[in-house]
Structures are given as C-alpha cells and as structure tokens.
Design goal:
Length: 189
C-alpha cells in the first residue's frame, strides 16, 4: 500500500499553543502507511505580495509550496482571533492561492474550541475557493478549551485520541481516493 503523506499546520505561533499540540498529536497518532509532517516555518513566511511570484521567490515560500505539493492531504488546527483566521495562517494561504498546490487536496480542519466557529467557517470558505476539498468527516471540534494539554496528553486521552484517529482515517481515505483518481486519469491520457 502506498505511503500517504499528510502535512499538518498549526495556525498559532504561541509556544504553548493548543493547536500546535493538536498537530503534534496527529503526527503521533498516525499509523500504518501514513506519514505526518508538522510544518514549522509559518512565522518565517514573508508578508504576501503578488510581486514575490514574479520576482525571485522567497525560499520559505518555495518550501511551503513544495511541502504542500508533496502532501496527499492537509491537517490544519487553528485558533480564532477576533472572529477570524489568524493573520499568519491567512498569509500562508495567500501565498498558495495562485500556485495550485491545494487544488483537490483533501483537508481536515481541527477546531480546538467549541466556541471558535467564525474562523473555522472562514477557513473552510477560503480553502473551498482555493479548490481544496474540506473533508467533513475529518473536520472535527475537540473539547480542549481551557485545558492545558500537550501532544502527549492529547494522545493519552482516550476520547481525544479516538476522535483524532477517526479524523486521520477519514482524511487518509479521501487522500487515497484522490491518489487513485489521479492515477486512473494519468493512465487514460
């Protein structure tokens, strides 16, 4: 069975971020032929400027595009700030609007707070406009608000681990379907 590569991105730059703990927990919980890479250069991305695509592309942007292009699926766990997507995450997405790495890519949106619904909806809309496929069965809300859990504590919590494993499985299934669909399309050309 082919290895499925998942890129996991936290929309938070905080050192003790719950969302960062979630993506690290996803990496720990992935099993079988699934490899999860946690993206860790969000804060290094320059502010989006369309001229950057025409001039020499910043190496951090090039690496983001490479990682997204190489991934079969994407996990995003993001906080909500002022009813919106954090600027650093939106900036990262802006850098790939026109480059196509997210086209048809299955995405799991993990929400770490049941109260944070505005950013989730906005993020889902942005990704849909970018032609990504937000997988409903892989997009979950975890009851982490007010709990200071690191990745290991999330993995060791039976309820949280089951929910994350289920989300990973749904994302992996969608990613496999896309891989097969693309292979069939390539053979029919």
């Amino acid at each position: 069975m082919r290895l499925i590569r998942i890129l996991a991105i936290s929309g938070s730059l905080r050192r003790a971020s719950t969302n960062s703990a979630v993506v690290r927990a996803v990496a720990r919980l992935a099993s079988g032929p699934v490899q999860v890479t946690v993206y860790d250069e969000l804060e290094l991305l320059p502010p989006f400027n369309p001229d950057g695509d025409e001039d020499s592309l910043d190496p951090v942007v090039a690496r983001l595009r490479f990682h997204l292009g190489a991934a079969d699926g994407l996990v995003i766990s993001s906080p909500e700030y002022a009813h919106g997507v954090p600027g650093v995450l939106k900036n990262a997405l802006d850098w790939v609007v026109g480059s196509g790495e997210l086209a048809e890519k299955p995405v799991a949106l993990i929400n770490a707070s049941p109260r944070a619904t505005h950013a989730w909806a906005s993020l889902a809309e942005t990704l849909t406009v970018m032609s990504a496929h937000v997988v409903p069965e892989a997009s979950i809300t975890l009851p982490l608000q007010g709990r200071s859990l690191d990745a290991l504590a999330i993995v060791e919590d039976p309820e949280l681990a089951v929910a994350l494993r289920s989300a990973i499985e749904a994302l992996t299934t969608a990613a496999r379907q896309l891989v097969v669909h693309r292979a069939i399309g390539a053979l029919s050309r």
